[in-house]
Amino acid sequence: MAESAVSLVIDKLAPLLAQGVQLLKGLYNEVADIKDDLEAIRAFLKDANSKAEREGVSESVKLWVNQAREVAYQIEDVIDEYNMLHVAQHRDRRVFAGFLTKVSSLVRKLPLRHKIASEIHDVRKTLHRIKDRSEGFRFASSEQGGSSNIVLHDPQSGSLFIEDSELVGIESTKDELISLLVSGECRRTVISVVGMGGVGKTTLAKKVYDSYVVKQHFQCHAWITVSQSYDRVELLRSTLKKLYEAKKEPFPEAFVTMDALSLIDELRKYLQQERYLVVFDDVWEIRFWGDVEHALVDNNKGSKILATTRNEDVANFCRRSSLVHVYQMKSLPQREAWELFCKKAFKFDFEGNCPKDLEELSQDIVRRCGGLPLAIVAVGGLLATKERVVPEWQKLVNSLDSTMASDPHVENVTKILSLSFHDLPYDLKACFLYFGMLPEDFSIKRTRIIRLWVAQGFVQEKRGLTLEEAAEECLNGLIRRSLVQVDEASMKGIPTTCRVHDLVRDVILSRSEELSFGHVSWNSSALEGIARHMSISKGGSDHPKGSTRSQTRSVMVFCGAKLQKQIIDAIFEKCMLLTTLDFEKCPIDEIPKELGNLLHLKYLSLRDTLVSNLPKSIGKLQNLEFLDLSDSLVERLPVEVNRFPKLRYLLGDPKRGCGFVVRGSLGQLELLQTLYVINAGYHHERELLNEIGMLKRLRKLGIMNLKTEYGRDLCVALENMPHLRSLWVASQGSGVAILDLQAMSSAPLYLQSLILWGKLERLPEWISRLHNLAKLRLTFTMLMDAACMGLFDVLLLNAIELASAAAVDALISFSIDEYLLAVTHHISAL
User: Fold this and answer.
1) Degrees (nearest 5) of the Cα angle 728, 732, 735?
2) Rounded distance between C-alpha atoms, residue 181 and residue 208, angstroms
3) Is 646 helix (H, G, I), strand (E, B) or coil?
4) Residue 590 half-sphere exposure, CB side, CA atoms within 13 Å?
5) What residue segments make up the domains of the chain, in order of their start?
6) Over the stretch 678-690, which tens digit does the pLDDT of each residue have?
7) Is the pTM of this model over 0.85?
8) Contact residues for 793 (Cβ-Cβ < 8 A; gap 6+)
9) β 726-731/674-679 pair status
10) Is CATH 1.10.8.60 correct for 170-328?
11) Domain 2-137 falls in which CATH fold?
12) Sign of dihedral through CA atoms 405, 406, 412, 416?
């Protein structure tokens, strides 16, 4: 982890030095020396970290690594304070016209400038001492602190789910559980899968839940992750919401504020006439059954409840009011453990078989895993990245020392996961540790975690890739190593949501505390320490005291209850160096004007909050790159938003589904890649579309309430967007008006997703030239049979979603008979 901290600081120093002597005001040479020393230290950190991980190694090595990390943090703090001062001075020069006012502003900042200069002197001396001490340890040098074994553009990276061919030892159990679910008593029945962490309970339950036989048998179903610290009301509401989602029904807003008794009543009414299946994954406490049993009505229709738990008492407690079947999951026997290991370690070579020269070492590794699938897939995923040579594998066997044999279970897994963490390239280590900031059993969207990583600077630019694409490679690397699990994936196998196993999270939290990387509870010591990342849950029962400025760089808030005002104030008043602030789904309704103090802020998410207005001080956030206002109450953006020179993502589809209104000139946002969803009905449309046409880097665009007469202007704007990947257009009046999109002569060639919402007199002929199109959705188009035939010139189409009754039958039969395309169709809003 010291490698990550040092590398991040080197990356920050480079542009600072590039600005020249004048900017650094006499400190240029010292800052250049600091950068040189850091690069020298980074060259030794790979070997130093390796030695520090070994048991029995002198504490002095560990101390040296810790000191290298801490001085990197100190340098980062000084750099960010200097940058903040520079931004403030630059703003003063623009704002203040009077000479005396300028002088007064500069004089006030002189003590801070002196403090920063003094800190740079002190840091340089400390760094020299650390560098000199490294010579006594005789560390091996490397050009890069990270491993070179990570594979970019892996051709198999799309297949990140656990395929049936990879499952070992659970096929008969899966069939047995399916049989229990679809047959047997008409009374409500509870089936409990019991076993220790990492034995494969969730994997088994998910395969059973997703099976075609089960989905066809039950009229409604829901998958709920419970976790160790659940809230009863949120559990009931989540269950009800999942049932609605499974049937693609809108979730009533009234349910959001209901208490437990009201939610139980609604669940009983919803399930009364249904044969239902509800899966509760990762149940810890006996009280759980008392919290849900009255909501899950026994309707004599053969309804089933499937629960996974480590605690057999949970399973037995259900017997008081339901039929119960308990299935005990055991560790894998040696033969099946070996089979699973080979499928992970040699998935893409040797036809899934272990080479003879590695067999003895591999058998030893499998034996040390104690038959635990989580440990086996973790170590198998690690070895899949290694060269197939004996010395490389012998190193791993040496790391798995004899202490593992003393406990074949949790300690065993922890040791293996720690080894997997140590083996990660330095850029992946920070990405991996960031999962620890998420609540237990939290499933996060791929797009969200990728943007957070980018905002934090965890991801380095790679030739030919955007930062987001490089971050996606990092996520795939963690998934391939079995450190991150895919929760949901698209039809093409691309992960859409992911999480970490709770045992993996335990390792992450332990490392995070040890490395001062992050804290997951809110208290004064956490805020005023040197931890870089903060996660707040349950509204925060404590709040920080004192006036010390926090060194925290990111704050994520996860709470269903209202956040205490003292904590909100502390975030904006103390965390001046924040780069990331994520309030997604937090029930806050106001952002204070002190938002403008966060001059380093790159990422701000108010998604799914109750915030309706943004303070004008947001205009001070000149480093902002990501602004997510989706599902909030913000409908009109302040004109200041148009002045963000670095803004790349602007997301804002309000809860009312009306798109957001932008005032002023959008064309200044030259780096904008995502603009979604903008309401064209409240603008001078032609002027707005001209401005949008200036955004030549756009990759995703959503625009609604488009009048028919301005369709041609939109076509002209789209012709200027060569990088566009996703387009969503809705005509005026929620799709009632005609969409006139015929005038495009050269459509964006890389368009992958196209959603048109409104009447089409005929299908735009340019659609047939979109050879990269993977998703097409037509809603309220009212096209007739003959007009649809042009669709099938798009030979690479993977999925067609139709929401118009007209011509559906002809379209589906034509696609199957003529092109044998895999077509999915969702008929809605008929």
Assistant:
1) 65
2) 9
3) coil
4) 7
5) 2-137, 170-328
6) 998 876 888 999 9
7) no
8) 768
9) unpaired
10) no
11) 1.20.5
12) negative
